[in-house]
């Protein structure tokens, strides 16, 4: 029997990171039957829906999920230092990971497991799990990074990692426009991701990780060559990174446990004309205060366009939790809104994002510009009205609007205040409606919509035999297997 190559996947504990790792793992396994994967789960105290997501997944041969959780009391202790929490939390799992590999896989000899005869071929690490390189080194196998954001963000991260070693920088209050690796246009400092605005304890930890990317054998990016040619070429020319593998869109599966909600939404969409619906959905952590909800409602009603709105209740102030569904959305919507818009609109809680974006009726996506959502929208041919909330989403918005011309701006420098310490920053109905009208004007002749449709076709071809992503994925898998030769 031929020995299989076993990979250890270690995602960050957030839902977007875990789901992306699962979808990437499925893509790898579907491409080569000689590979098998152990995906290690670190349980975050807030969970963020990870456990329910994992429970909804069907079992797959050659893919197993391993719980490597540490003592909850230790996790509580780590929470006392918010700047370091994520990094210390991941570091705290090293011993558990070592024990799992020692007891279940060996890099030197074939071992017998539920996968049959296997040898350890390497670790595939989330962009925040860099310290696990140390564990891979113990077993004398290579590490690879699975970078869940854009190639442009990787370039920006390398740019500022280099900058911090030569000078002090502080762009927290700056209106400068900067020349940054990976971007054709000058980049406004006001939309820099938080780690690039100033050196802080948490940003230092982030750049320490970026520096260690160079120790790995490759970086896998959830993008494709035709979408980000400039950023990918910039990284190649700069010679600052190990080999990069753009492997195309890794779609997160919609929740299998919510078939009833999905059926109701799809039935409604089936009754709408092609490309007529504005879909509003803001990701795992996306929610707004009542003041902002009312402005969105006003914008939708004034615009006159059909809409499907995923409206979620924010968690209590100061708590980092997932939003929840409203028991009665009328409590935050303008009086009579649902009655006045019942013929053209549908307000829901959770929404099956990939299913909705894939539907012929959807014409515009009002999005927080998370990279997973961005890739789903592009590959479904739906233009974005960009309303970033946190993390690197402001950079994603700039990339989409200014660099690629695949979106229009609602407010690019918007930052969500999750702690609720400041007065609510309200985006006006006029700003929201203006973006919608720009994207819905001129139907299929709209320039942004045409560019997105063209990019959708390029994304399809990239995954076909001989396409850029098809080729990149197979080169990566050949490299995985070479590690046990």
From TrEMBL:
Keywords: Glycosyltransferase, Transferase. The keyword rRNA-binding does not apply. The keyword Ligase does not apply. GO terms for molecular function: UDP-glucosyltransferase activity. Its EC number is 2.4.1.-. It holds the Pfam family UDPGT. CDD domains: GT1_Gtf-like. It is an enzyme of class 2 (transferase). PANTHER family: GLYCOSYLTRANSFERASE (PTHR48048). Belongs to the UDP-glycosyltransferase family. This is Glycosyltransferase. The lineage of its organism: Eukaryota, Viridiplantae, Streptophyta, Embryophyta, Tracheophyta.
